[in-house]
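Box S1 | Example of a co-folding query
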Amino acid sequence: MPNEIKKVHLVYFSPSGSSEKVLKKIASGINLPVETHDLLTPASRQKEYNFDSSDLVFFCTMTASLVMTKFDEIFGCLHGNGAPFVGVVTFSNTQFMKVILLEEITKYAEKQGFKVSALGAFPTAHSLAASLGNEGRPNADDEKLMQEFGRKVYEKVSSGDYVVHGKINAPEADADKIASYRSVEDGHHVFPFREKVISDACIKCKTCVRHCPVDAIDIENKTFDLDKCIGCWACINRCPKHAISPKGPEVPELVKKFSGAVKVPFEVEMVF
Ligand code: SF4
Ligand code: SF4
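Box S1 (continued) | Returned holo structure for iron/sulfur cluster
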């Protein structure tokens, strides 16, 4: 049965801003009012967000495994009440993560009463260094696809079709790579992605503090609570003075080693 969609909602957990930009580009393909819901800060996740079947809800976050540790909190404040829902991820060089993350997003969204109607994965440049993955992405072609995705999803749910008929491709992944990834994650307390230093360039503007999704930064003492930190690098990417950097020169090498096992092209994927 056709369904009249009256509003588009963009819900994002976007530490470095890429997921927010992707959702806004997707929404530009739909000629409806748009409301945004930024769930990055702990305060934003203390509120309740209620939707219904006249809403079309897009959710996007980045492919970082520790982001999933916050899904109880992120999805806990969203109430679908039968609203059509679209799960979107941005990914740089850990392609297999997009499959894992979209499965988790689907599971959580259904639990919160949404009807998962489409899924999308869009390549964006790696937040540490573009050379580590997807340099120059999203490009103009990606952006056209984002708009097309929005338009197609809108047409689909307006026709009353709330079922995902396709599947995001599980890439021809190197099994050893995934196994090593999982073992690293199991012992993530020793994983250096979360260890950072703040240089003398810091002007104490607190931009990093305001964008940290877990209140892990003590800017007076220039320290990070690594038990809270999810390694999202919002602080690194948003610091106007580039005063925060990963601790240890080994991190870029680890990123390279950690990624790149999947030999398929970094392509946009959309399933309806
Ligand atoms: S964003 Fe950068 S300059 Fe501002 S307080 Fe944080 S580290 Fe210092
Ligand atoms: S301290 Fe950790 S969780 Fe907070 S913004 Fe930085 S990397 Fe993200």
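Residues 7-171+263-271 form a domain with the Rossmann fold fold (CATH 3.40.50.360). DSSP finds eight helices and twelve strands in the chain.
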